[in-house]
Structure formats: structure tokens, C-alpha cells
Amino acid sequence: MSIIINADSRVLVQGITGSEGRRHTQRMLDSGTAVVAGTNPRKAGTTVDFDVVGYGPGADLARQGRVEIPVYASVAEAREATGANVSVIFVPPAFAKDAALEAIDAGVETVVVITEGIPVADATVVVDRALARGTRLIGPNCPGIITPGQCNVGITPADITGPGRIGLVSKSGTLTYQLMHELRDIGFTTCLGIGGDPVVGTTHIDALAAFEADPETDVVVMIGEIGGDAEERAAAWIAENMTTPVVAYIAGFTAPEGKTMGHAGAIVSGSSGTAAAKAEALEAVGVRVGRTPSRTALLVREVLGA
């Protein structure tokens, strides 16, 4: 089982002809993802060619070798021609809002915005449009989402873990990778990076609700960070709705007050938004909180008896 994406997902890459889009499309193809189209109005009618080697656990042996991905002028055209239901966006910040709105308006079910540095005002417009249209928006400024052995949308390395029993939702890309690696012998249902900007499409609560509904997810790892109150709100939701065990890690226990730490949303003012306050709120509702990533992984093993 999985959440949001699976082996049937058909992925469209907005920005496939750029260096980042091309590089990560190669990685997605190698991990077995069904990338079916790309968009670039200036290069419509061409193809982007890849030599698929299939190193990931989900690699489709039938697709190994030369793969030609058609490039279309618009998302609507690409979706009509290929049946794409997931879009991943690799375009510069100045163009990301329009790219995301185009995908949403074309009826794409899930839109993953990898781009970082998008203005908050632009992100707010995109999130509002996604909510209005019923589109699942992931990001911006995120590593994307991976269901090991089935589908990988974004920049997450596919060869550091395999399918298993753990669900993971995280504000941080690098911490996502670390926990995936430390728990690789158990494996994951789905790993979701929601992004660390002040405004994002999918929240911790959205992800927790999806994992709660997945019978194959036996424990959820939630990675938060200083700043804002998303983790406190997640704690309140967990208390009322969650039966699946949750283990958490909050990045920033040693962060100095008033400093932005990596992500635009990770800034502390006074006692609000500190790692200690978030950990206290989570522990008060029965969530076990690790003080380091490695300790968090050990707590997951204790919960699973693994």
C-alpha cells in the first residue's frame, strides 16, 4: 500500500528540458517511475531521450534501454495525450507560480513543486487554487514523494531504501534521506517531503490523515523543525484522530533565537516555535520524540519491535 502515488501514477515533468529537470527525470526513470511526458512551449514536438539503467528497487526491466519522453506545449495537451495524473515542477522561482497554476487548471490530480525560493505571495495563490480545485499540492521547496518500489516523484534518492512498514512525512529533505537510510532494513510505505516554507500545500496533518487510512503503515515518522505552529497543530490532531503510532523529530534544538535556519519558515520568536515547545506538545499526546535523527530511528525500532 501507499499514499498519494503508486505504480499506476503517470508522471509529467514541467521543465524536463532544463538541466535539473533532465537530471532528476533520469533518476525517476531509473527507479521505475512511469514518466510519460514533459512540457516546454518552445520545444513542443521534440523528445528528451534517456538511457534507463534501472538501479532502484522499483525499476521496470521492460523500460530499460533507450526511452524517449515526448515534449508538449502545455500541461493540458500532455495530459490529454498521455493520461498524466501527476506533475512535478522543475522551473525557476519566477515561473513556478504559473507552472503550478497551469497544472492545477489542467486537472492534474497531484502537483509536486520542487522549486525553492518561490515568493510567499505566489505560494499563497497556488495553495488557494489547489484547495479550490481539489488538487493535491506538495511543496513548494520540497524533495517530493516516493513510494519505494513503485514510484518516485522529485529528487529523493531511490536506492537508499525499499518497501516496508513505515510512513514518513518531513519538512526537511536531508533528514528524510537520513531516516530512510537508517531504517532501510525495515522499509517504507511512502516518504513525503512537504517542504519548509511558511506556506505549503500539504501539511503534516494532511499526511498523517493519509497514513492513518493506510492499513500497511504500522508507524509514522514525523520530522518537523523550529518555527510556526504546524507541529503543535499536528499534536492536537493526533490526540483526536490517530491510532497509528507516531515517532517525531524536531530539527533545531540548538538553534539560536531569531535566526532563520535553512528554511524560510524556520524562525523562532521568543518561546513560540521552539523545538522544546514542539516536543513538549507532541509528547503530551503520546508521541515519542527523538532528540537526534539516530535516536528517532531507534525509537521507531522500539515501537515496531524490530
The major pleated sheet works out as:
7 strands, mixed
Radius of gyration over C-alpha positions, nearest whole angstrom: 19 Å
What is the 3D form? globular
Strand/helix succession: EHEEEHEHEHEEEEHEHEHEHEH
Counted by DSSP, the helix tally is: 9
Low-confidence stretches: none
Helical amount: 25-40%
Q: Round the mean pLDDT to the nearest integer and report it.
A: 91
Terminal Cα separation, in Å?
20 Å
**Which strands sit side by side, in order, in the main sheet?**
3-4-2-1-5-6-7
Secondary structure category: alpha/beta
Oligomer: single chain
Count the E strands: 14
Proportion of strand residues: 15-25%
Q: In a nutshell, what does this entry contain?
A:
By secondary structure, the protein is α/β, with parallel strands linked by helices. It contains 9 helices and 14 strands. Helix 4 (120-133) links the parallel strand 6 (110-113) and strand 7 (136-138).
What keyword list fits this structure?
306 residues, alpha/beta, 24% strand, globular
Tell me what you see in this structure:
- By secondary structure, the protein is α/β, with parallel strands linked by helices.
- 32% of the residues lie in helices and 24% in strands.
- The chain contains nine helices and 14 strands.
- Strands 3-4-2-1-5-6-7 form a seven-stranded mixed beta sheet, sandwiched between helices.
- Helix 3 (93-105) links the parallel strand 5 and strand 6.
- Helix 3 runs parallel beside helix 4 (120-133), helix 5 packs across helix 9 and helix 6 runs parallel beside helix 7.
- The chain is globular, with a radius of gyration of 19 Å.
